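Note to self: user wants both folds in one dump. Writing first protein now.
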Amino acid sequence: MAIRKRTASEDRPVSGAFLGTSDFAATVLEILAASDRRPSLAVTLPDRRRGRGRREQPSPVALKAEELEIELLKSGNVNEEADRERIAKATAATGWASICAFGQLIREPLLSEVPMLNVHPSLLPRWRGAAPVERAIMAGDPETGVAVMRLVAGLDSGPVAAVERVPIGPDESYGELAPRLARTGGRLLVATLTAAADGEIEWTEQDDDAATYAEKIESAERRIDPEQPSGRVHSLVRALNPHIGAWLDLGGERRLGIRQTAPAPEVIGLAPGELTERNGRPVLGCADGAVWLAQVQPPGGKPMDGADWLRGHGLP
């Protein structure tokens, strides 16, 4: 989606502070800035070491705010008085700040002083928490969505102002789904801020009894378990690609990163964990069938086609 950069004459802040850090949040910020609800201040986490070189780099939201010429605050703790006052001042004229994938807990008195609309990529109350997109794919959900809710002290438990459903394709990965959700979230946030400005928000309380929780992905969850059904293995690989990555134990402390799989219903008779070759392609036996290893990543190497890996390395 092409976003037109605003001209200097249009450079007029008409909504409060925006708090965010991730790529997902940067997309939301870009859409917000191109709308009539351009934020007056972007708040993000300080630079940190990331990537292979472990060099200190700004967050995606910091880079986007600089590109869009939005005033930027890098905060190590937004709950401290100086940063809290700056956020409150930026939001005073409009009444609402917005937040998305920020990475810090918002505590009192900031929580009460500055009302915030939170963009959360799930159909709340399903998948409250840190990894809602990954958990929805891992669970095999046929759809997910984006909700805009009021930020409260409880984990993603505030009343919802707007929600939009988004289907999940059967082979769709996190890398394909998350940008779609971010664009939906940006559009939904603009509409909700407009409704807030007009005093037309209708809140819907969440059903806490129906809540499920999207815990952070733990390291042990990245390991592919061939004793699981093939559909579950396929969903795990999709959910963790490309930002986390699943891996297969080849024995002897050897691992193979698995970037992309495909169902292999035509392959029968493999035992769970049996890694073999069919028509020049690697295929892995699972509890109830098999999956093609369509794209793999050897240790220290780049992602490559599974057939190319098989030709170059052979079966372990």
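First done. Writing the second protein, which came from a different request thread.
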Amino acid sequence: MLTITRPVLVKVRVTDDYKKNLAAELQQTVSKVELELQHLEFQARKLNELAKKNPTGAEAALAQLEQEKQRRLDTRAKLLDKIKEVGRLVNGSEVVQGKVESIVEVKVGDDWRQLMGVEIILEDGKVAEIRSLQPEG
């Protein structure tokens, strides 16, 4: 007999509360990104004013700020797309939330697929089900 760790897939069963909470989390992240964008725009305005007096090095700094701004704009667009996707999730469907590990004892003759095929299903923050792949035949 041997003791090993195995991956356990964690899924969430979609409910109205799950969609509401996920959309709120995503919206909170969008707000944070928008604040960062405002800060970058403020820094760009200050750099533009300094560049009028001393242009040395200002162009490189402005280009870097523009890259940062574009990255945040891309992030915001992706987050807004995710918010739209959340609205299209069907109640009762399952979405993968991540993986964890568990410890299992293995002995000669065990069905490997059954040992490795374990999932935890969450519903509204609680464990609703623990599934184990059943051996075939």
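Dump finished. Worth passing along: The two ends are 25 Å apart (CA to CA).
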